[in-house]
Write a structure and sequence with these properties.
Layout lengths: L5 H74 L8 H12 L9 E6 L2 E4 L15 E14 L2 E16 L2
Helix pairs in contact: 1-2
Amino acid sequence: MPAISLAARRPLAAKLASIGRRSRISNLCREDRAQSIVEFALCLPALLMVVTGITTFGIAMNNYIMLTNATDIGARQLALQRGQGSDPCNVAYNAVVAASPLLKSASLTFSYTINGTAYSGSTCTSATTNLVQGAAAQVTVTYPASLKIYGKTISSSFNLKAQTSEYIQ
């Protein structure tokens, strides 16, 4: 076996050392990537819970805004019913249901106060005598809601309530 001189060994040793450094560096890069994936996997459930909670709250807020706007429309229709028909509460009921298409109409609860007299439900045929110009007509609508995230109840059932008063025209 021929003897390799010291000068000839150094480039070979330098090449082997650089190869070893490259493999160590690439291993470190792989470990960093794996660490990032593990951190992402650990944070993902919490992140999804937060995003789902925000979405659930947004849906409840949308229902409340829709209920409030629909109640305003129903009260306006009720205030305009003086001398128009025999059942002003039914007109208001139909206006609220039509203005809130994303809410279940069977879950809506109605109460009316016309000129100081209280009515509830979707009809009030005896209210036509109370429709006096300048008197107050008040419509109150409630809708049940709950906040659930992935089947867990965050807030037990509660009622969204909207109330609007108008002067009878």
